[in-house]
Amino acid sequence: AQSVAQPEDQVNVAEGNPLTVKCTYSVSGNPYLFWYVQYPNRGLQFLLKYITGDNLVKGSYGFEAEFNKSQTSFHLKKPSALVSDSALYFCAVRDDGGSYIPTFGRGTSLIVHP
Amino acid sequence: EAQVTQNPRYLITVTGKKLTVTCSQNMNHEYMSWYRQDPGLGLRQIYYSMNVEVTDKGDVPEGYKVSRKEKRNFPLILESPSPNQTSLYFCASSPGPYNSPLHFGNGTRLTVT
Fold first, then answer.
1. Distance (Å) of CA B71 to CA A6, B8, B40, B52
2. A vs B: CB pairs below 8 A
3. How far apart are CA B40 and CA A14, in angstroms?
4. What is the CA radius of gyration of chain A?
5. B99 touches chain A (CB under 8 A)
6. How far apart are CA B85 and CA A13, in angstroms?
7. Which of A45, A90, A100 is nearest residue B43 as measured by Cβ atoms?
């Protein structure tokens, strides 16, 4: 079975400060991990993924995520937040030995204050 | 432009009146799927399709039907909608189901009264 948790419903950060959006997962095999962003009245957009290789993954719009196998985490980070980063962020996981169905987290609302 | 197109964007209907939400992709993707998004629950998969004429249930298939007669189209059918199907629906596609990211449509907000 696979599962993913986003422990924070909302994250608030000031513009220019670093941001972190947390994600932890549980799989039986090896994880395929994804981050998506959703702006108001839009579908989800892909940000980055971890399949294998380097634990630090770089993605779109200056975002990056660090895969930590021992802590089963895949936190999303950005060194300097922008007001335009305010959106809903989803973490998703697939177990490489499991079903075709990815499991999405409940989402974290990121609010960047000017 | 590569995209997934859903129609309509907004739909208000009454209980029991059959409806279809269309989804089309122009990227020649083999894998397509439908999700519903509800507050506090994230996204849950309704149905998915690995290729033409190949469909399978997701996590919440009850009350929904799909078909995949052509590679580019994957309509979602509600034969007898009920108020608990009021939700925001997304169609998504990808080259494959394993480690490829999903491309999402802009969503269909359905209200069933």
1. 34, 20, 33, 5
2. 57
3. 25
4. 14
5. yes
6. 35
7. A90
For A16-63, the pLDDT digits (tens) are 999 999 999 999 988 999 999 999 888 899 999 999 889 999 999 999
Sign for the CA dihedral angle at B103, A80, A53, A55 comes to negative
Task: End-to-end CA distance of chain B: give it in Å, rounded.
Answer: 36
pLDDT beyond 80 at A98:
no
User: What tokens were used for B46?
Assistant: 């309704």
Residues of B in contact with A43 (CB under 8 A): 4, 90, 92, 104-107
Contacts of B50 in chain A (CB under 8 A): 100
* Chain B neighbors of A101, CB-CB under 8 A: 45, 48, 58-59
Angle at B93 between CA B102 and CA B72, to 5 degrees: 160
Cα B71 to its chain centre, rounded Å, is: 14
Q: How far is B72 from B77, CA to CA, in rounded Å? A: 16
